[in-house]
Amino acid sequence: MTIDFLFIWIAFKELLKAAPLTLILTFIPIIFGFLIGVSVAMIRAYNLKLLSPIANAYVSFFRGTPAIMHIMLIYFGIPLLLDILIKYLHLPIQSNSIPIVLFVITALSLTAGSYLSEIIRSGISSVSQGQIEAAYAIGMNTFQVLERIILPQALAQSIPNFTNLIIGFLHTTSIAFLVSQKEITGAANIIASKNLKFLEAFIAAGFLYWIITAIIEWVSYAVEKKAKSYTNSAI
């Protein structure tokens, strides 16, 4: 058996067409997950009576079960619920008209939110109590303390963990192929099946994932360096 190096390059160029969808499935859930994560982290950090049990159950469930299960539950479950609602309200729409990618993004956003909430919560706990007390002593309210003291430092401390999560989600997008989304791994599988050159196709996919990961790490390093210099000067 010999490796067709020319086909690796051909496959790599074809896989570049699938890269935009992969990046969408990586970063959009991270963005929505960040908003969810901040909200859940605040609820849990301040132990809000009515919301804390719900937040704890959400984090426990989504961190305790695999992302592929979240996609399958939402992919099969949400259309079923929508069909019932549409029939009950006599709406002129159908659940099968909703793009599948929206279900995948929803599932991954909820998954990301659970992990990000823990990352942010650990960042919040790293902020010294002395700084918080000093902020209250000079007349800041709770919102100002969060905005100016707690969150900037918490987020700066959490950048390495954010980076790990983003890279993890980049690789997790490969399971979207199970619901017919042609991201990088799915495209590699299609190319390999058509040409019967599985090794070459997945070598090309591996190189593309590696390149994207390296770019994410480089950007993360630059952001972390900037954030730390800012927080150090502020302190």
UniProtKB/TrEMBL annotation:
Protein name, per record: Cysteine ABC transporter permease
Family matches, as PANTHER family: L-CYSTINE TRANSPORT SYSTEM PERMEASE PROTEIN TCYM, MEMBRANE COMPONENT OF AMINO ACID ABC TRANSPORTER
Gene Ontology MF terms in the entry: transmembrane transporter activity
Domain of life: Bacteria
Pfam families the UniProt entry points to: BPD_transp_1
Similarity comment: family membership: Belongs to the binding-protein-dependent transport system permease family.
One Gene Ontology term, aspect cellular component: ATP-binding cassette (ABC) transporter complex
This protein's record includes keyword Transport: yes
Main location: membrane
Cell compartments where the protein resides: Cell membrane
Annotated membrane topology: Multi-pass membrane protein
One record GO biological process: amino acid transport
Keyword flag Membrane: yes
Transmembrane segments: 21-47, 67-86, 98-116, 201-223
InterPro entries per the UniProt record, alphabetical: AA_ABC_transptr_permease_3TM (IPR010065), ArtM/GltK/GlnP/TcyL/YhdX-like (IPR043429), MetI-like (IPR000515), MetI-like_sf (IPR035906)
PROSITE patterns referenced in this protein's UniProt entry, alphabetically: ABC_TM1
ABC transmembrane type-1 domain: residues covered: 19-220
